[in-house]
Specification:
Elements lengths: L1 H9 L8 H17 L21 H38 L2 E5 L5 E6 L4 E6 L1 H4 L3 H30 L30
Antiparallel strand pairs: 1-2, 2-3
């Protein structure tokens, strides 16, 4: 429509009353009902399978909903089982704890699988030492506990996902992880 207006101003486009401008509008008008025609079915009653000639958009929407639910029933069951498995994994990983302590037991740190400290115990004897030594002992225990929890969480995850630990790729391979082990030769023939 904007192009027609611009052409009319320049005198090159169809005139307002000409036959070609009306046929263009008419063609556009008749194009939309074929594109926007609702779902047609073979049923002629006014039930869920009624076609658009009955004039009921609700019957159309019920038919689409019925077809969608039947088609996605298998997908929903699969999604429910995946959701249940994921919930079991999340619950199992949430219970994982890593625990580490200094050699004398003066500092004890417990973390969850995500590295958050869940328990910190500092003996009165440890409070008398220099603050930097105490901070270093806490940081070392925290790192050890976090590594233990992470290892245990990975083991549980692999177990629940039915992935054996031996099938995971070995990170100490000879090729870097961003490089393909065997490059693919690409040839182009013209």
């Amino acid at each position: 429509m904007v192009a027609n207006v611009a052409c009319r101003r320049m005198g090159t486009g169809p005139k307002m009353g000409s036959h070609s401008s009306r046929s263009t509008v008419r063609r556009r008008h008749y194009l939309f009902p074929t594109i926007l025609r609702p779902y047609q079915s073979q049923s002629s009653d006014n039930g869920p399978g009624a076609n658009w000639t009955s004039g009921s958009w609700t019957s159309y929407s019920h038919q689409i909903a019925d077809d969608t639910s039947r088609a996605s029933e298998g997908i929903l069951v699969k999604n429910d089982s995946i959701a249940a498995r994921n919930e079991r994994i999340v619950n199992a990983v949430a219970q994982v704890r890593g625990r580490a302590q200094t050699s004398g037991g003066a500092v004890v740190v417990e973390t969850d699988a995500y590295g958050t400290i869940t328990d910190l115990q500092i003996s009165p004897a440890a409070m008398t030492v220099d603050g930097s030594r105490l901070a270093k002992a806490i940081a070392q225990c925290h790192q050890t506990a976090r590594d233990q929890a992470n290892t245990e969480a990975n083991r549980i995850y692999a177990e629940l996902m039915n992935i054996s630990a031996s099938s995971t790729p070995d990170p100490s391979g000879n090729t870097p992880e961003w490089e393909d082990p065997a490059p693919i030769r690409i040839t182009h023939v013209v």
